[in-house]
Design a protein that fits this description.
Strand content: 25-35%
Distance between the termini: 53 Å
Largest sheet: 7 strands, antiparallel
Radius of gyration: 20 Å
Structural class: alpha+beta
Number of helices: 6
């Protein structure tokens, strides 16, 4: 039995008088709500068909003044327009993992949601955005492959972490999306770590599985002004992942565009070993994690690739800000002149 407490919404600007959990069948029989909502109101648990519409449920099944947590695998239950959500409540969506360890992963996610300190994640987010907008932006460096890249984010605003009118859990996923011109990223970028594949349900899991060798083996992307010009597996273990990505490029050149980068700011959330956006919110034992995104609105899938072994530094001054920590003990400044 998985226990859900109203405190999971504490990091959000809740304002409702009730607490409601909408959960996808057959998960509902394994969920129990402990405690009461705001003002002592009795909470509600609503089982929903995977094919159901969240907007319709909000209109017909949920009290208008109830804050809502949605636990689901399907996009239709995790998105709703702002007018369906309304202004008097908060609706938070958490994507469920699938597989034999799905329940344990949900427990970990709920625990992290309760422990998350939004002030800390917001502070780290402001620190990164300030450095990104400074002259020179950020420098990415991966010591094992020697890859170096420059990210110039001057004038680039962050995207809000919302899906329609729904805020996605957990707090801490900070995407910085580009314009149609592409993200101003240039150089060699080493990708290593758990990928995330979003978008069209058909084929999504298969593509994710083909890219999972990147969890253990790195690959280097050659990027020029936000466009991937080439890719190379560093070890034979990443050959299959490189082949899958090359095949994707062949199907649609739009996948070569780096449509954005993502910083994971949540230090309470351990990395989730499954295909979920929540995995990119985790700081992964660092001050923040770093990921690059390929594809988006113009493609069936959005592919998010982790850069777990890459350090992110302020170009001006070389201060380490995110990603893999400097290897030398006590060293927090990256000297560009030594490369």
């Amino acid at each position: 039995m998985i226990v859900v407490r109203p405190e999971v919404l504490a990091p959000y600007p809740v304002g409702g008088k009730h607490f409601t959990v909408i959960v996808e069948k057959p998960w509902a029989r394994g969920i129990r709500i402990a405690g009461r909502g705001p003002g002592g109101a009795e909470p509600s648990l609503i089982p929903a068909e995977p094919s159901a519409s969240l907007a319709a449920l909000l209109a017909t099944e949920v009290p208008a003044e109830s804050d809502v947590l949605v636990l689901a695998t399907q996009d239709g239950l995790l998105s709703a327009p702002p007018e369906a959500v309304g202004r008097s409540r908060v609706v938070v969506g958490a994507r469920l993992c699938e597989g034999p360890l799905a329940q344990e992963r949900l427990r970990r996610l709920l625990t992290a949601m309760e422990r998350t300190r939004p002030d800390a994640t917001a502070h780290q987010g402001r620190r990164l955005l300030s450095a990104l907008r400074d002259p020179g932006g950020l420098t990415l460096h991966e010591p094992l492959t020697g890859s170096v890249a420059a990210l110039d984010g001057h004038g680039t605003p962050p995207s809000a972490t919302v899906t329609g009118g729904v805020q996605m859990a957990p707090i801490g996923r900070m995407p910085v999306r580009s314009t149609t011109c592409g993200t101003p990223l240039t150089g060699k970028v080493t990708v290593k770590g758990r990928p995330v594949v979003g978008g069209a349900p058909r084929g999504r899991q298969r593509l994710y599985e083909r890219l999972t060798p990147l969890v253990s083996y790195p690959m280097v992307l050659t990027v020029e002004a936000g466009t991937v010009l080439g890719l190379k597996s560093v070890e034979s273990g990443s050959d299959a992942a490189a082949a899958a990505l090359a095949e994707l490029f062949g199907q649609n050149e739009a996948y070569r565009t780096v449509t954005g980068v993502v910083f994971g700011l949540n230090t309470e959330l351990a990395p989730l070993p499954c295909n979920t956006e929540a995995a990119t919110a985790s700081a992964d034992r660092s001050t923040a994690s770093f990921h690059v995104e390929l594809g988006g609105d113009a493609t069936p899938y959005r592919v998010t690739l982790a850069c777990a072994t890459t350090g992110v530094y302020a170009t001006e001054g070389g201060l380490w800000l995110a990603g893999a920590a400097p290897r030398a003990s006590g060293r927090s400044v990256f000297r560009l002149g030594r490369l």
